[in-house]
Target: Amino acid/amide ABC transporter ATP-binding protein 1, HAAT family
Amino acid sequence: MIRVEHLTKTFGGVTAVDDVSLHLREGAITGLIGPNGAGKTTLFNTIAGAFAPDAGRVTLAGEDITGLPPHVLFSRGVLRTFQIAHEFSSLTVRENLMAVPPDQSGERIWNAWIRPARIREEEAANRARAEEVIDFLQIGHVADELAGNLSGGQKKLLELGRTMMTEARMVFLDEVGAGVNRTLLNTIGDAILRLNRERGYTFCMIEHDMDFIGRLCDPVIVMAEGRVLVEGSAETVKNDERVIEAYLGRGLKSRPGRERRA
Model:
């Protein structure tokens, strides 16, 4: 789906992403993990068009999308969510969903006079789609609540729902579990799995909760100091000496009692 080839992004004298190459396979839920400062979010932002890379290339299904701005990538089905939800706080959950589809006739004021029937038709279609998303995510009880009043976990569900209001091909999830209670986290995980298995969504997600990563993701890519350190299954990377050292600053072999447990 997406190939990243020798991608580099620097800020002043700091190299945040350092010659990164990876492949995000179509139909997979790829986990991206690593210690704070590893370059994960910068990599997301560079692939998703928020930053222009200093070197390297990004392709989507063979098409070069390097440096394209987010709104162009959105039109091509590349979406992302944020660690801090970006909802329209003064709109209801339903209205937040209905605002997502691009190129709505109602966005042009003259259409209110010359094409009112088309506006009503599109609005009805968007409302029907929003209701489907609300049912899918089981958030009917807050559908008419102002989005600014939602809990952190409910806002993350809303962000996920907004990706369902357009033809998403690749969705980047930035710490979808941050600040979310365990019950809602399980609900979010169920929704991601269903979107992947039933609707063919491809995901790449930054996350620190290894239980959550282990449940959803294969493969898992580990970054450290701006580079890809290792890639494999959740169980493989969790027990990799390089990963343990990147997180803890020392290898597993140096841990007391290692020989007895082996």
